[in-house]
Amino acid sequence: MKKFVKGGRYTPKNYSDEVESKIQYYKREGYKLPGKHLLRTEEQLKGIRESAKINTALLDYIAENIHEGMSTAEIDHLVYAFTTDHDAIPAPFLYEGFPKSVCTSINDVVCHGIPSVKEILKSGDIINVDVSTIYKGYFSDASRMFMIGEVSPEMRRLVEVTKECRDIGVKMAQPWTRLGDIGAAIQEHAEKNGYSVVRDLCGHGVGIKFHEEPDVEHFGKRGTGMMIVPGMTFTIEPMINMGTYDVFIDEDDGWTVCTDDGLPSAQWESMILITEDGNEVLTE
User: Fold this and answer.
1) What's the pLDDT tens digit per position in 10-42?
2) Phi and psi of 143, rounded to 5°?
3) Fewer Cβ close by (within 10 Å): the C or N end of the chain?
């Protein structure tokens, strides 16, 4: 979720002559293009895919075990145990001081919720579980929403529309389009359904590092932003609020992001690879 702007010379060895030709054409035309360090090699993609398999299996495991009455600290324990049992490392643990292995964000918590023994899941809650995995030096990232017990129709609809926003964003992430196309499509769908898109947080490049360029905004204008090029790997993770898009960070822990108006928020996250003819969903 950090912002970087760098240039870079491209190497054609990992891509077809057609891709390299297009890169050079758009470069001459003055388009904003990703640096070569963001275009993954086959060796890097092998490692990223292995990390992604563990990350997806971890979310499947959480889906099988999450339940009413458990604490979010128990979720953290499950994440740590599963990850380390697969010879991997939970990426959030001690990242810039984050104290746990997973982010657990309930109801009006937008993201970065810190697991706690005092936080007990109850019927009617919606919770985002955000997991990230390091395997042999390669990173993967994804999150899912879970609905606990009897969830109100209003909360259920928020969760479902947010997932639709994620899916629309993935569909829009095509080679030789622009990052602004993704954000615009997500914003249009969210607002059409009466919701707002969080502005202060975004998707990001991931694979060699936990957070890399580019920023992937979930709002914006079509035809703007960096060009999407085959070989890029990044997340699409819209945070959709039932009320306004304004948020604040809890001063007590410095991490937990909450809606300013106290209304619920939801988030779904996938990590994708841009290919020469579309994209490949690596995590979901």
Assistant:
1) 343 566 788 888 999 999 999 999 998 999 999
2) -145, 155
3) N
